Amino acid sequence: MQEEKEFIEALLNAKTREAAFRELVANYQKPLYHLIRTIVINHDDTDDVLQNTFIKVFRGIENFKGESKLYSWMYRIACNEAITFVQQKAKKQALTSESYLQKQVENLKADDYFEGEEIQLKLQKAIALLPEKQQLVFKLKYFQELTYEEISNQLGTSVGALKASYHLAVKKIEDFIHKN
Amino acid sequence: MNTKFSLDSSPKIETGFKASDDYFDQLQTSLSQKIKEKEVQVIPLHRNKKWYFAVAAIVILSISISAYFLLNNQTLHHDDVEEYLHYQSSISQEDVYQVFDDQDVETLEKKLELALHENEIEHFLDSQNINEYYLID
């Protein structure tokens, strides 16, 4: 905790800010990339969202009150950025978020940044058929391995509702994979 | 027998998403560049200068427009001229006649003809009790 406090001070200090920011990017770029990618699917879109996330973190570090861990705070920013990105993209194309994500999954086979086998593709297709909120809960729980409490903090939804949402999502995905 | 697929009992399925180390190296460079650009962009003086110019331009334009209308609206009303002539004792009717030439008289006649019908002129003369002038003549 003391180390984190010192690191935040380095981010706030004009003399050490740049070096501290480079360290921040080096430490968190991969986990944040994978979080964003599971939500937005496409690599180029992930790159845009990830860069925006880091810029927001850099500019907003003065507002970080230290009530949560730095990574949790960044994780929340990344999550919100990704969700907003999908919603805006879908709106621009006059689609629902679900339809937009289904389109993204359809393009995965030709994506150089996807190395999944048949089962990975099938799982992505099954997830894309879920309602937006269920998709998000499933992705955070199954791929990101967050606890219900952590997801509750990120999304502001009760643990009970999250459990129900996750179990429904799992059942639908299992049905889809079984039938296909 | 075809057993139903179960996420819990199956090995964990990964996302299949990947990104190369080159990508992450480039991301570092790109972000450092963006941060520097953002910092260079935040120069309040430059931004304020723009505002000063904009506000100055609006103020100058407003003053110019107001001055233009003020200077061009100095036309005299007929009532003002009439009042001036009436109360200016140094100018007699004779003086006014003197400045009228033939063309002015013709113009005035035409204007009166256009403005008044004969009936109206007669009615006006009747109402002015000018018979005594005829009698005198």
Task: Give an overview of the whole structure.
The complex is a heterodimer of chains A (180) and B (137). Chain A is mainly α and 180 residues long. Chain A has helices at residues 2-12, 17-40, 43-60, 70-92, 97-106, 118-128, 132-143, 148-155, 159-179. Chain A folds into 2 domains: 1-97, Rna Polymerase Sigma Factor, Chain: A (Orthogonal Bundle), CATH 1.10.1740.10; 116-180, Arc Repressor Mutant, subunit A (Orthogonal Bundle). Chain A is 77% helix and 0% strand. In chain A, helix 2 packs antiparallel against helix 3 (43-60), helix 3 packs across helix 4 and helix 7 (132-143) packs across helix 9 (159-179). Helix content of chain B is 71%, strand content 0%. Chain B has helices at 21-41, 44-72, 78-87, 93-99, 102-115, 118-127, 131-136. The longest helix of chain B has 29 residues, at 44-72. At the A-B interface, helix 2, helix 3, helix 6 and helix 9 of A face helix 1 of B.
Task: Please name the defining characteristics of this protein.
A: 180 residues, mainly alpha, Rna Polymerase Sigma Factor, Chain: A, Arc Repressor Mutant, subunit A, B: 137 residues, 2 domains, 7 helices
Integer average pLDDT of chain A = 93
Report the principal-axis shape of chain A: globular
Q: Give the number of helices of chain A.
A: 9
**Overall pLDDT score of chain B:** 73
Largest sheet data of chain A = none
Helix fraction of chain B, binned, reads: over 70%
Provide a concise account of the structure shown.
The complex is a heterodimer of chains A (180) and B (137). Chain A is built from nine helices and no strands. By secondary structure, chain A is mostly helical.
